[in-house]
């Protein structure tokens, strides 16, 4: 029920500021109980998409308030927004977050997390560069461990977004024409830099890994152009 209403909001059938149809109308249309409908409203309200006010009703909020990073909102948007847009947004966020997270992890990762990161690399190696459910799970784990080990717990909140971005890239790469391998050597480069505690090298290694992914996505018709401020090299620039 929440998803059905969310799709109408995301497609603009219920634009921001619109009052959602009365309960009686929705109950008759969807054939659900009042309890189910109200629970759906609670779900959407928690995601910032609607707000209920006395004597006004339930209205669609401005997109400024929507929780776009919520796992369900991510999934709902993928159903109604052009894939090229979604992929571009997800990958753009990876560009902003993951190199910095890798660099920070090199300074903050503990022994247990480093061991788990190494196990993820070993698991990816078992696929000999091929994509399998096991290597995909290990790849996702690798990237989420780096976020969690960055020393900033808030970065782990981006885990769902990074996972969606990874899985979308892998889905595109599952087409033999696009082939998105595990890129084990680049993951190893990130791991070794993190293990050595070399933040700048870890940053650059992750940026290189993302460059390879971007090239494959672009060749498949999903633009992931490097932002202008990054085209000159490492950002932020190293101090002399």
Keywords:
61% helix, 240 residues, two-stranded antiparallel sheet, mainly alpha, elongated, 2 strands, single chain
Total of DSSP H or I helical runs spanning 4+ residues: 10
Order of helices and strands: HHHEEHHHHHHH
Q: Outline, from the CA principal axes?
A: elongated
What can be said about the biggest beta sheet? 2 strands, antiparallel
List low-pLDDT spans.
none
Strand order of the largest sheet: 1-2
Strand percentage lies at under 5%
User: Between the first and last Cα atoms, what is the distance in angstroms?
Assistant: 57 Å
Q: For the residues shown, what is the average pLDDT?
A: 88
Give me the oligomer status. single chain
Please give the radius of gyration in angstroms. 21 Å
Number of strands: 2
**Structural class of the helix and strand makeup?**
mainly alpha
């Amino acid at each position: 029920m929440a998803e059905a209403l969310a799709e109408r909001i995301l497609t603009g059938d219920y634009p921001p500021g619109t009052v959602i149809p009365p309960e009686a109308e929705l109950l008759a249309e969807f054939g659900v109980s009042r309890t189910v409908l109200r629970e759906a409203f609670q779900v959407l309200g928690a995601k910032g998409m609607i707000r209920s006010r006395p004597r006004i009703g339930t209205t669609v909020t401005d997109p400024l308030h929507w929780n776009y990073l919520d796992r369900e909102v991510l999934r709902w948007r993928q159903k109604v927004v052009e894939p090229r847009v979604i992929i571009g947004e997800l990958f753009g966020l990876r560009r902003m977050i993951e190199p910095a997270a890798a660099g920070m992890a090199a300074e903050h990762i503990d022994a247990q997390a480093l061991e788990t990161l190494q196990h993820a690399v070993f698991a990816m190696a078992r696929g000999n560069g091929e994509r399998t459910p096991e290597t995909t799970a290990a790849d996702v784990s690798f990237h989420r461990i780096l976020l969690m080990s960055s020393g900033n717990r808030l970065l782990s909140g981006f885990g769902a977004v990074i996972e969606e971005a990874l899985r979308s890239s892998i889905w595109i790469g599952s087409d033999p024409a696009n082939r998105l391998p595990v890129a084990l050597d680049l993951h190893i480069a990130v791991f070794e830099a993190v293990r050595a505690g070399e933040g700048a090298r870890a940053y650059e290694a992750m940026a290189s890994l993302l460059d390879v992914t971007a090239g494959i996505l672009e060749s498949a018709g999903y633009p992931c152009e490097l932002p202008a401020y990054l085209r000159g090299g490492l950002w932020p620039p190293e101090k002399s």
